[in-house]
Amino acid sequence: MPVYGDEGVHTNTFVVPGAAITFLSFLASLTSGLAFIIEKNDGMLLRGRVAGVTHVEIMISHLCIHFVVVLIQSIFAFLVMFLIFNIPGLGSIPLAYAIVVLNGVTGMSLGNFPSTFPCFMQN
Question: Where are the domains of the chain?
Answer without folding.
Answer: 16-121
